[in-house]
Design brief:
The chain is mainly alpha-helical. It has one domain. The chain is 70% helix and 3% strand. The chain contains four helices and two strands. Helix 1 crosses helix 4, helix 2 crosses helix 3 and helix 3 packs antiparallel against helix 4. The chain is elongated and about 60 Å long.
Length: 128
């Protein structure tokens, strides 16, 4: 039986990536709008493909495990791509940290959305 702590990767990945795309422009405030849009679109597209590939091996995964697998695959692929394109290590590290921070925000928002809600009728000690 499935519960709210399990998710189908086909559903989970687009949700993560949609949240990522909406928040990316706020994660890099010092960049100009066009640069933020381009970098956000590229990173979101790459991350979406890498996350889907990482999660496609299983029909269902616990959500936190799925998020971790998606991030690990994304980070490895981003690191390899940035090295292949000759991006300086300091800049690559900065982009990776921005992506990690964004992933953490998305993961926490997603966990809040899927967390079971307390039923005040059955759990008297549950916060309202």
């Amino acid at each position: 039986m499935r519960n709210s702590r399990f998710a189908d990767p086909a559903v989970l990945v687009p949700v993560i990536m949609a949240m990522w795309a909406r928040r990316w422009s706020d994660a890099w405030p010092e960049g100009d709008a066009a640069s933020r849009e381009i970098v956000g679109a590229v990173v979101t597209t790459i991350a979406s493909a890498d996350a889907m590939e990482a999660l496609s091996e299983d029909d269902q995964l616990p959500v936190l495990l799925a998020l971790d697998a998606a991030w690990q695959a994304t980070r490895e692929a981003m690191t390899a791509r940035m090295a292949a394109f000759g991006i300086p290590p300091a800049r690559a590290e900065l982009l990776t940290r921005l992506a990690q921070a964004e992933h953490n925000l998305n993961a926490s928002a997603l966990v809040r959305r899927i967390a079971p809600r307390a039923d005040p009728d059955t759990d008297a000690d549950a916060p309202v």
